[in-house]
Amino acid sequence: MIVALAGRRIDAEGSESERFPLTNVGLVKEKLKALLISLKPQVLISSAACGSDLIALQVAGELNIRRSIVLPFSQAAFKLSSVIDRPGDWGNLFDTICLEVSNEEKMVERNYPQNDDETYRKANLDILERAKILAEKFGSLQEMVAIVVWEGKPKSENDTTEHFKKNAEARHFTIQEIITV
Q1: Which of 19, 50, 102, 171 has a Cα-to-Cα distance from 160 of 20 to 30 A?
Q2: How far lies 112's CA from each of 15, 40, 118, in Å?
Q3: Phi, psi of 30 (to 5 degrees)
């Protein structure tokens, strides 16, 4: 089985809406751990933003599940824009996981423009495509699961997490959701 994952980053300080508060990291980590134990995937593929991505990658590492990371642009730029810009100590975890993953399965760095609204949607599609490629490689094409870690609803018409979910459904992934609030 191959698992693709996307979801919410930790809420910014002073955020008006609660989507993934820092106080819920432990709860989400336990939910992800239980789900990954039950699924027993061969590989977990995601990006590596603060919040759901890094938590899932950390848990997968603890469970000896191979990991693959897809970044929309360089690791250094991604760390600045999507990792250390939110509350919590995510920078060291990001660096550690990226080092580990580069030795495990593969880390893909795209060269998408950082200021393009479509960049993260393209990365979502890359994550799903990577999952399909690995499923074919491991002979588990019928066992593709997409885990969506969010509050259960889109935050806007252009919600990136909902985009991931809809595209995973269109590609016949089984959808599992982890609620962050």
Answers
A1: 102
A2: 27, 32, 9
A3: -65, -40
| pLDDT tens per residue across span 119-156 | 999 999 999 999 999 999 888 667 899 999 999 999 99
Parent domain of 73? 2-10+18-179
- The CATH number for 111's domain is 3.40.50.450
Q: Structural domain tally of the chain?
A: 1
pTM above 0.90, yes or no: yes
pLDDT digits (tens, 9 = 90+) for 149-170: 999 999 999 999 999 999 999 9
In angstroms, the Cα distances linking 138 to 113, 131, 175 are 32, 10, 20
Task: Give me the residue label for tokens 């885990």.
Answer: 147
C-alpha–C-alpha distance, residues 45 and 66, integer Å: 9
Three-state SS at 66: strand
